[in-house]
Each structure stands twice: as C-alpha cells, then as structure tokens.
Amino acid sequence: MSAPSATIEIPLRRGEGHGDEVLEVDLNDLKGNHEAIIGILTQEQAPLRLFLEFAFQYYKRQMPDQLVMFLEAGKNMAQSRDLRAMNGKEGEEAAYILILNSLASYRIESAKAQPAGSPEQTQLLSAATQLLNDAERLNSRNPLTIVGKGNLMLARQNTDQALYEFRAALGLDSRFLPALIGVASAHFIKGEYKDALARYQTILRLKPGIQPDVRVPIGICFHRLNMLAEAQAAFKRAVDLNPSNVDAIALLSLMHTNKARLPSTPEIEREQSSALAGSLLAQGFKTKLPNPVIDAQMAERYFARGEYSKARVFSELAHRHSRGSLSRSEALALKARVVQADGDYDKAFKLFSEAAVLNTDSISIQFGLGQMQIYKNAKEDAISSLERVLAKQPDNYETLMIVAALSSRSPDMATKAADAFTRLKKLLKSYHEDDDKTKSHQWQGEEYVTDPELLIEMGVFYEKTDVKKAQASLEQAIALLEATPDATIVPELLCNMGALYHVEAVQLLGAGGTAASTDDRDVAGSTVAHQTHETRLAAVAGLLQKAQTFYERALADVTAQARDDGADGADDVAKRVHAEAVRTSVRYNLARLEETRGNAAEAEELYKGILADHPAYIDCILRLGAIAVKRKDTATAFDRFSDALAIDDKNALAWTMVAMIHLDNRAFRPARKLLEKVFQQIDKFDTYALCSYGNLCLRSIRVEPKSREYNCKRSVEFFHKALRHDPRNVYAATGIALACAEMGNLEDARDLLTQIQEAAGAHENVVINLAHVLVDLGLPKSAIPFYESVAKRQDVVDLDIIRSLARAYYFIAKTEKLPDSMATVAERLEEALKLSPNDLALKFNLALAKQQYAQILNDQPKEKRPLEALKRAAEGLEVSEKIFEELGKRKPEPTLAYDVERARERANYSRGVRRVTDKKIHETEVLEKQREQRLAEIVAKREEALEAKRREEEAKKSEEQRRLEDLERRRREIQARVQEENEKMRLALEEERAKPVRRKTAAAAGSDEGEDEEAVGGERRGRGRGDGDEDEDDGRKSKPKQKRKRKEKPSREAASGDEDDEDDMDIRQKRSKGGSSGGTRSKLSATTVMDSDDDE
Question: Is the confidence at residue 43, as pLDDT, over 80?
Fold first, then answer.
C-alpha cells in the first residue's frame, strides 16, 4: 500500500485525444461518501490498488463496514475482469491476492469475536477459507497467502498446522515478518513462552521500528515467564518510544495496579504503584484511542470507590471496544458485577449468562453466574456453575462454602454436601499445618475448624441426620463467636442450639414419652432396670436443662431487640417485627420443653401466654389440644381443635388430629370422613393426612378381616401418595412394607424395609419391623442381630424388644432342636417378667419355654444331655407346672391373653415330661458313674505306664552318671601322673643346667679357648651318637622344650574323656621301652643343647 496522503487520485477514462485526467478525493471527506467513491472506482475501471488504498484509509478511521465494502468491491472488480488481461497489467494480480488476503484476515478476526463453535464463527471461518483458496489458486507460493492459512489454523485452534504453514512461508523468505510474527504467536498460544520470546526478539532486531511495537508481546512473554522486572522494562520502553502506545500503557498500568494489591508489598511501594497506575491510566485515556484494558481498569477503580454510575460507563466502553470473545466476556462480567453491586440482579444475571456463553472457562464469570442463579432460586444450576470453579480451583474456600450450604439444604444432595464439608475441614487443617504458629499444635477432634460460618452450616446440615454432630458444630461456633471481640451471636443460633438438645432429649425418651412418665408396673424387683431407667431420666433432665439455658439466652437477647426504641424507619420497624417473631418462636419452644418434661400445666400456661399476645397462633392452640388428648380429655381437645379451625378452617393438621381422636376411639367411619374432607377440600397432598389414612386402613384389617385385601391395597395407595410428595418420608415407606407383610408378601416387605434402612440409617422402627419380617420368613438368626442392635442403642430396657428376641430364639430352638436356644428364651422371658410381673401372657410363655427346654433336652442323644442341664430342666419343670396350674385356675375371659384350657393341659403335660426327665436323670447318673469308672481305670493305667517309664529313665540317668564319674576319675589319675613326670623332668633339667657351667670354669683355668670349643664340639657329637650319661645331662638342658611337648599329651587325654584303660597301658609300655631317662628324650636334648650354645 502507498503511504497515506491528503488526497487520492482516481484516473478517469476518456476517449482518444483527451489527456490524462484524474479525480482527487480529499481524505477528510471520506465519511459518508464511500458509496460514491466505490461507484466512481467501478465505473472508471480503476486499478485494484485504489480499492486497497481506500480500504486502508477507512480502516485507519475505525470504519470496518466501509473497509469490507471496498474490499468486496475490489474483489468483484477483479472477478469481472479477464484474468489474462489482468496478468498483463502490472501489479493487478498482486493487488487481487492482497484484497483476498485482507478480506480473509478480516473474517478470521471477526470469527475470533464469536463464541467458540457457534454457527456464526463457523460461517466466518468458512468464508475465510474460501478466500484463501482463491488466493492460493492465483499464486500458491505467495508467502502472504500461506501466512493467512496459518492464521486460519490458529483460529481453528490447530496450532501445529499453523506452525507448519508459517514455517513454509519462512522457507520462501526467512525474513518475512508476518510469518515470523505468526510463529511467535503460535508458540505463545501453545504456552511455549521462551520460544515465543526468542521469535519476537528476532523480529525486533530485524525491524526495530515495527508497528505495532513487538515490545508489547515481548513484555507479555516476560510476564508469563514470571520475569516481572523484565516485563515492566519492556512495557516502559515501548511507552518511552511512543507515548501514545495505548496497549503498552494499559499493560504497564495493570502491572502497577497488581503490585499495589499484593499484601506483601510495603505500604510506601503500594502507594507509589497505585499513583503510577493512575497516572498511566490518565495518559492512556488522553490518547483517546480505544483500549478495553484501560476502560476495564477505570471501571474497576470507580467500582472500588463505590461510584457505580461511572463504573458502569467505563464497563460499557470496555465491552464496546473489545474485539475477541475472551475480552468481550470479561467486559460483560465487569458490567455484571457493577450492576450486581448496584442492586440490579436481573440484569446482572443476564450479563453473567452472556459472558459465560462466550467464555465457559472463566472462574470469575462462573462464580458470579452461580451467585445470580442462587438469586433466581436455580440452586442446581448454581451448584453446577460453582463446581466448574472448583474443577479449576479445588481449594477455593468461598466457593466450597456456598456449594456446601446449597447442597445441605437439599435432601437429594446430602452426599455432595458431606463431601464439601469434608474438603472444607481438610482445607482449614492444611492452613493451620502451614502456619508456623499453629502447625505444632495438637488438635483435638475438629478443633482446627475455626470458621464460625462453616460450623453453623455444618450444624444445620447435621441436625436432620446426627444431632450429636450438629450440637458439636454449633457449640464450637458459639464458643468462637464468644471469644471474638465485637462478634454478635444472633438469637436464632442460640434457639437452634437449644432445639438440638431438646430433640436429643426427646429421642432419648423414645416415641412420645415424657421425662416424668412412669410405668404402672412394679419394677422394684429389677434393680438393673431401675438404675438404667433412672440414668436415662437423669440424662434427659440434663439435656433439657441445657436446652432451657439456650432458650432463655435467646429470649433475653431477642426481647431487647424487639423492644420499641422509638425509631420509625422502615428498617427499624422490620427489625422489630423480625425480633418479635423470633421471640415468639423461642417462647413456643420453652412451652414444648415443659411439655417434654411432663409439666403439662406449666406448658399450658406458656401456650396461653403466647396466645394472649398472638391469639391467632394456631400452633399453640393445637398443642393445647394435644395435651388434652393425652389427658383423655376428649371434649377439651375437640374444643381446642375447633378454636384452631375457627381461625383457619383449612388447617389440615387440625382436621387430621381430630380424625386421629376418632381413630383412637375405634370410630373408623368419622375418622375416614374427616381425612377424606382434608383431601377433597384442603390439601390432597398433605403427607401427615395421607399417612394417617394409610394407618387407618391397616388398623381396619383387625376389625374387618373380610376386607383385609381391600384395606391393604388402600393403605399402600395412600402411603404411595405420601411418598410421591415426600420421597424421604420413612413412615410412609414403612407403612407400605407393613401392608405387604399383612398381605403375605414377606419377601417384598423385607426388600422394602432393607431399602428404607439403607436410605434412612438405623431408624429404630424400621429395624424392628425388618426383624419381625425376617422372623416370619423363618430367618430368626438374621433377625436377632437387628433386635440386639436396637437394644444396645436404648438406654432403657424395652419390653417389646425382649419379647421379640424371645420369639426369635424360640423359633430357632423349635426348628433346630437346640436346648441352649430354648434356655435363652426362658432367660429373656424372665427378664421381661421383671419389667412386667403381672403380664399373664409372659408367664404362660415362660412356663412353655421351660417345658419345651426339658422336652428338647430329653430328645437329645446321651452325649448331648449333661446331668447338670437335666437337673436344671427338672427344676424348670417344677416352675412350669406351678405357673400352668396357677393360670389354669382362672376363669376364661376374652381379655385374657392365653387359653385357660390349654394352660391346664400344659400343666398335666409338664408332669409327664417331668417323669421322663427324672428317668433321663437316672440313666445319665448311671452313665456318668460308669464313665467315671472307665476314666479312673484309664487314668490309673496311664499313671502306671508313666511311672514305669519314669523309673527306666532314672536308671538310665544313674548308669550314665556312674560312667561319667569313672571317666572323670581316670582323667584325674592320668593328670596326676603327668604332673609327677613333669616335676621329675623339671628337677632333672635344673641339675643338667648346673653341669656345663662347672665344665666351662675348669677349662678356662687349664686350656685355651680353641681347645675347649673343640672338646665341647666333640662332646656334642658324642652325645649325638647316643652316649647314655651325656644324653642324660643334655636331656636336662633341653627340659623346657620337652616339658612343653609332654604337656600336650595329658591335655589331649583329659580332653578326650572317653578313652578306655588300653590308652593308659600304651603310655606305660612306651615309657618302659625308653627307660627312665633315655631313648627319644636324649635325642631331643642334644638338639636343644646345640641351639642353646648357638644362642650364647
């Protein structure tokens, strides 16, 4: 392209004879005249370069639509011409290729601004592909076209293919700057920042003044390589060279802003960085060149100051000036945050949604979208958005908190909530382990959770599943808030804490019991049961006292808040109304507390006090009616429920409670009509009413046996309805299982109860009913662990559980003929009788169990009926006979829980079993005696054999001892002889040593030294030939060596210890052959003397 000028000349076509004429177009008049200019260029068949020139001028003036119009017009002009004619004109083909490449580049840049994979993006990239193919057909070796193909590959995110194209262009021209820039861009996109930096630096060396300035991407590469000082220097150099380089200004300002935000930056440097960032932003803004980064920073600054109107203006500018999809998404997110802070949540939701479409990977966008989805009550969508944040930042504490809070409030997301809470706790623990002040601390339990908000959320989550965990979490939260200065504990938290203790007390008491309730039976005979009951009541009293303490604290705080302080502002009035509502709830809970304690009168007074302030508080009226029902005061109960219905005749709970009064009085028809009224006129989906109707049908089975199948089906129908509207309703699910059992479908009942148990946990009623069904299925061994698990969790002995265990063991004993199991039955029934000594049915069953125990024991083989067991059976038969006789004396009555005639028969049968048992006892005693005799004989024979063996072993030991002593004696004798011989040799050696000294003295006096030596030499030789006397003398001289040699023999003889008398004989014979001082000893002596003389 030619350099820009004030005018552009368009040559005009004229006939022959006319001179060359041109039309000058003033560049200041371009705006609004583009169509006229295009018309002139087309009419005059202007060179293609002019289309490019005008397109470039419009591009400089940021008029993209006009740019495209000129390029399209140039392309159409080129296509309308004959290519051969075009080839004849200088530069026309090159201009056409440049037009095609320019259009393709514009399409590619436009595609980048569209959402990834959108139809618009696909269409633009397809158009760019067609344009580049056309340019390639004109000249396949044009480097600009090849670079265009590389840019297209980058837009399609095919970085490797793009690199291939760029390198192909460099193969044609190694200094082709667009190709070098493409290679650098590809490396940058791949994250290969060192390679990208090297390429950009090469470009800078080739053309230092290139525009746009490559120092900007060089600085970005340094920043990605964490070389912040070099990055800042690169941006600063670019600004110094060109103060209007708005991109460098924006990035340099952003670096100073980020430095000012770092907590580790000193205060002085923070202020300096903030001031530099502000001055740079002002400098960039004065250039009046559009830059979304500067606009976004300006918006952020005004947003931080709370000037939302100005922040909104700059966020709009940032969005308007953004080209790529990523920058547009960030601008939209910025606009969303501004309007969110300004309270326009609907618009913020729309903007975040648009930003998320453009950029699904942005953490800040997904987080903001999740917040707005919570506002829209789209909790599942919010959790999905926030989970995208956690996928990239698993340890994002704030996001985990929100996910945990949202999930904890949805029963279907309990697992997800538990996982989020676990991750939060691990995260907090890791913070403490990394902190030098707390890493060595030994944490107890979950003491490391120091965030009150997290603890409160955990408490809310656990309160439905684990009261203990909920209590621990809320207690820890309250303790942390109390230890934090200026922290406020809201009354609602204290009220919830009290409610948790209250709920635990109710659970401990059991279904509907009260702390003051006592049984009508006499328990004095059961000290253990009495102590357990007292312990349970003491625990309940302690829990209720804690609940009362928290309720009273909450009441004191909320009463102060509800007090009218004279302020009439809307917020003040709303606060007082809210405080009064909380105060009423706390007072109601206190009344329920007294009701749990069994203080019905105190509870009534509290309910009436609440009604005095709030006469339409229906919950209090219903509780007063429930208290009357417990007192069997049906008339008062009806009055209370009528009062509630007078306030709200559509109150389903009130109508259902009236129906339950009729049902308890066995008035099935009125109860059914009232429940049907609830379904028809009030709420056909009320789960309490639906479950009540199902229970009514189940109870009707006992009264209307002929309608058994109909009532079972109806009960299942209503329980199913309840489950459809409350899938976690344990009572409805259990009701269906019981209906199946009533219809004889025990397998289905077992499967249902098993599923309910897995879903609801160790729910007591579910576990007990499952055990009942297992017994009915003939699987008492499987049922027993369930009964026992329930019994272990109960602080007080449950009579029904004991009966159920006895029944299960009875089935085992009867089926497998196991006397031990029947003995267990008797033990369980005796335990039950201690709790209910006047229960005649228990007495009958105990007598039967003792009778059956004896009968089963009698039928056992001889080896399996011990005498002691038979005697116990006989004792049990006596008790059984007495019980049956006592029960048989009663008159038959419908209310009796046993058959009198059958008791009499059993009494007679006990006598017969007793006679058989006595006979078995006699037989067993005889067998026992015979067995004892045989055993005694076996024992005697065994002892006799052991004694004989013992004597034999002792004889062997004595013989061995004598042999060892004899050997020791011989060894000592030999040792003594050796010592004697050694002593003789020592004496002889001493005598021999004295003789040579005397001989040498005489020689010195009578002869010369040479003759003496010769004589001595001759004497030595004489001894060597075996002269007896001289050998004896020389033997004494060699005594030490001979002594050492002879000591070896006795040591070997002593060490052997096992040689016989022949060894001694050999030694004596050898000595006798050599004489007392000759033989071998004389030869050794000669050698020794010669050695001794040599030493001298």
Answer: yes
